Every structure is written in structure tokens, then in C-alpha cells.
Amino acid sequence: QVQLVESGGGLAQPGGSLKLSCAASGSIFRINDMGWYRQAPGLQRELIANINSGGSAYVADSVKGRFTISRDNDKNTVYLQMDSLKPEDTAVYLCNADAVPDSRAWWQEYTYWGRGTQVTVSS
């Protein structure tokens, strides 16, 4: 199995910055896409950004120009640099990864989720 652990959330002022990290561990043969979602109370989970193993990234229009996703394949870690934060960015941020845990079943990919980290943007 693959475990994902997020860190770096907290309280930031409007216009401030935070950097989230998500480290994958456990039985890992290959990690394909890694990404960040967020979920605010009463709203649907929203894809913020994702990145493949080659470094090609997608960033949602709602955060484009403010958030940057990056990845360290050697560390099995994905990052989300969040700048120019707004109160509407307040949410639980969740990491996910599409990974193959077993080389003997190289075709079997699963989606794994972290537990999330709270980001609150408030003055």
C-alpha cells in the first residue's frame, strides 16, 4: 500500500504564502500522476493542480498565476506553492497519487489519498 502524508498547512494572511508538501511512502513501484485537491465546507472537492512523472502540470484557472505545483521524483514528494492567498482559498487541501504498488502487477494502478491539511486565509 501507499501512504500519503501532507504537511505545511496553517494560517496565512491575505496576500501571504504557504507551501504544502505531500510525501508518499510504503510499497511503491511507480507513481504516475500526483495532485492536489481542496474541499471547503459545503462545496464539492475541487482539483487544484496535478503533475505527471515527466513534470507536465495542470493548474486550475481559479489558482493559475498564484499556485505552482512541483515534484521531486527521487523523494516521491509533490509540492504546492501558494502565493497571493485569498480568503476563498480557505479549505482542506488533499494530496492524491495514481500509483502502482507492485512491480509484479505493473498494470494495476490505484488512486491513493492523504488525510488533508487545513489552510486558512484570514486577517
Tell me the structural class: mainly beta
Spans of 5+ residues with little confidence (pLDDT < 50)? none
Q: List the helices and strands in order.
A: EEEEEEEEEEE
Task: Give the averaged pLDDT, no decimals.
Answer: 96
Q: Sheet with the most strands?
A: 7 strands, mixed
Global Rg: 14 Å
Shape: elongated
Helix proportion: under 10%
Determine the strand fraction and express it as a percent band: over 45%
Figure out the total of helices: 0
Distance between the termini: 40 Å
Total number of strands: 11
Output the keywords.
mainly beta; elongated; single chain; 7-stranded mixed beta sheet; 55% strand; 0% helix; 4-stranded antiparallel beta sheet; 123 residues
Notes on the protein architecture:
With 123 residues, the protein is mainly beta. It is 0% helix and 55% strand. The chain has no helices and eleven strands. The protein has strands spanning 2-7, 10-12, 18-26, 30-39, 46-51, 57-59, 67-72, 77-82, 91-100, 110-113, 117-121. Strands 2, 4, 5, 6, 9, 10 and 11 form a seven-stranded mixed β-sheet that branches. The termini are far apart. The mean pLDDT is 96.
